[in-house]
Amino acid sequence: MLHDMILKRFASISMMLALPALMPGNSAMAVVKPANLFTSHAVLQRNTTLPVWGTAAEGKTITVKIADQQVSTKVANGQWMVKLKPLKAGGPYTMTISGDSTITLTDILIGDVWLCSGQSNMDKEVGPHRNQPNVDNYLEELANANHPQIRLFKVPAKEGALSPQEAVNTHWTLCDSANVRSFSAAGYFFGRDLQPDIKVPVGLIHSCWGGTPAECWLDKNVMATNPELQSLVTEYEAAMKAYPTQAAKLQQAIQSAADKGQRDTVSMKALTQLNLIKRNCGGLYNAMIYPLRNFPLTGVIWYQGESNSDRAKQYQTLFPALIKNWRDTWKSNLPFLFVQIAPYKTKGPEIREAQFLTWKKVPNTFMAVITDGVDSSFNLHPGNKQLVGARLALAARAMVYKEKIEYSGPVYQSVSFKENQAILSFTHTGSGLMAKNGPLTGFTIAGKDGVFVPARADIKGNQVVVSADGVKSPAAVRFGWNDIPHDNFYNKEGLPASPFRTDVE
User: Fold this and answer.
1) Nearest C-alpha neighbor of 112 from the set 293, 294, 299, 245
2) Left, alpha or beta for 27 (phi > 0: left; psi -120 to 50: alpha)?
3) Distance from C-alpha of 399 to C-alpha of 396, rounded to nearest angstrom
4) Are residues 298 and 384 in the same domain?
5) Are residues 456 and 487 in the same domain?
6) CB contact set of 70 (below 8 Å; sequence gap of 6+)
7) Residue 74 contacts residue 89 (beta carbons within 8 Å)
8) CA dihedral defined by 87, 93, 99, 100, rounded to 10 degrees?
9) Comparing C-alpha atoms, which of 235, 232, 208 is closest to residue 221?
10) pTM of the full predicted structure?
């Protein structure tokens, strides 16, 4: 029964809060055990020093062999780690890990590993998912999802951890119709589009959870030391302080109803929601990101922001802080490619602006614009995840793999005013600017009174000239500045411009 499930979950959570962590020297660690990132079918990062680690009996010698390398180390405090010299792309290889016992891992490839993270639009699976529309053409996509040079690693969604964790309980799988079904669609399409072009194996790590704000994925200590983010920690700590009392009251109400043969669904729902506070303020960073930190990556793809849309100004600080936090965690200036959230009726332009400003201000990042990737229903979870993967893969090819290709639509750079006109300049103009299917749409203009009115916009070379009757001395221009921007400003490579405003606060 549902109330039994709630009670069991409450009991397990209470134990987690009350009991100390198991010490690494216990008997469960006597057998040689590599971290779960090292299983058959894994992809390991090429061209970099490669740590391999795990647990075993204290003082034992552990030897790792792969390709032409053999490295040994001693177990200390129940833990061991060796570091392999850089390996070139290729495989499949066999890895043996020897101590009191020998573990043999087969079909290991050396290539590029990408972390795919965020909330529901990254978590959305290729196969059907409850409460979400299907991915476009998902049956055909599943039927054609067998890619031997791509491998998948899906981190189980957890309620969050109060402290950094060392392990995730999962394993690598082949990229085939069965395994892709429950894997990130955006992540899969990214890897599928990228791998044939770069011609090396690709490993994809799916670590996502729907409905999560960015602060779940950021180290709490980072927020605590940032004046603009400290309030998140203060609110979280107050909630955690009140948690035992509130949870006990709800549990008592549920038990009381159960004793009477009834179900207190209101208290059940409240307790379930209360339990989720542990994922906030670093809970998912601790449980689903930190355990991956020693595993080298090529880069990150990220699709999130919907749950922070009502705090867009704060997101201008929070999102860059997250990027820096992850780069510090990996000790690497990881390429960070992210998706601007899709048009939706309750997601205002300010959150897309926060993402746009992050792209402009934080080096080695990219923002994929998908205003042209929504259907007529403007669903929060658009089914065209193929477009998302394609835009991210295009950016990776240019930024990471140094192909000489255009990978972005027009990006607002500056504005000048001359008489009754605003003259906009852009980067990423490609082979030229264009309007699809008629005159440019989506532009508004205002004078010093700040009243914006629909504007005429004309392409003049690599600039756009904007004006409107009645606005004699323009002071600001906005483009796509609404909840559902779906306008027709592109470069000739077919890539759309991001919404923007010249009057940034």
Assistant:
1) 299
2) alpha
3) 5
4) yes
5) yes
6) 63, 64
7) no
8) 170
9) 232
10) 0.91
* 399 and 365 Cβ atoms separated by less than 8 Å: no
Q: How high is the pLDDT of residue 353?
A: 98
pLDDT of residue 23: 38
Q: Do 229 and 352 belong to one domain?
A: no
Among the listed residues 107, 77, 79, the one whose alpha carbon sits nearest the alpha carbon of residue 95: 107
Instruction: Tell me which residues of the chain have a pLDDT lower than 50.
Output: 1-29
Say how many domains are in the chain: 3
Confidence at residue 274, expressed as pLDDT on a 0 to 100 scale:
86
Structural domain boundaries enclosing 265: 2-18+222-279
Per-residue confidence (pLDDT) for residue 375, from 0 to 100: 67
Close Cβ partners of 150 (under 8 Å, ≥ 6 residues apart): 175, 191, 192, 195, 201, 202, 203, 204
Q: The CATH number of the domain where 121 resides is what?
A: 3.40.50.1110
Residues in the chain: 505
- Let me know whether 203 and 306 are in one domain: yes
- The predicted pLDDT at position 376 comes to 57
147 and 115 assigned to the same domain: yes
Structure-token pair, residue 54: 């795990």
Phi, psi for residue 362 in degrees, rounded to 5: -100, 115
- Token pair of 263 as six digits: 């179900």
Write out the DSSP string of 357-424: HHHHHSTTEEEE--TTS--TT--SS-S-HHHHHHHHHHHHHHHTS------S--EEEEEEEETTEEEE
